[in-house]
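Q: Focus on the chain.
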Amino acid sequence: MSDPQQPEPRTTDSPRAADSPRAPQPANTPPAQSAQIDSAISRAANNLVLWIARHWLALFTTAWGLYVFLPFLAPILLQGGFTAPATLIYTLYSYACHQLPDHSYFLFGNSLAPNAATLEAAGMPAGPNLFAQRAFVGGADVGYKVALCQRDVAIYGAIFLCGLLFALIRNRLESPSIRVYLLFLIPIALDGGTQLIGLRESNWLLRTLTGALFGAASVWLIYPYVEAAMDEVIETEGARQTTLPPTS
């Protein structure tokens, strides 16, 4: 009797598995292409830095102009019946300013700077509760409150206007010494300090004059330093740009 036929041994790799194509593997980025990408990113970042350095004064002046203009937009919006956007402006600026009505300008009323008695007659809460008073934005009788107080309007308005002036004399203006700068701070310190501790009450004219003096002196001190720093950036980054490999 013959032996039964033995089965052929199986191999671990079947012909179908051996013949099946492998999934394509992602090719690595060639070193030359990677260098070109890095160079393009470096040039874009370099150009952005140079653009900011060359236009910093326009950027600063535009930002300060918007900052001091928006508070005047709030009463204009209220006058037009747009309560929601006006409330948003008041809320945003409440984190930067006390917004006390008797220290603020009012638009569309009989007086640009109504006193406390007039404001109380128009509905402002009387008494020492400053949080209740600052929430008063005015009405048809007295007009509507600007979202920045008189002193802050003067400070930031002066910074905006002096930024425009600086554009004309930027190459001929040097920063004052710290001692000279501190002299310009004395009026605002005296006016604001004596009012804060209750020795006297200031008025809209003094708040405006002392605030404008402080804003103008700050531009005089700071902007020449910023100008010198930006000139250095332009020189340094311009030289660095010439060393970057060209993009194809």
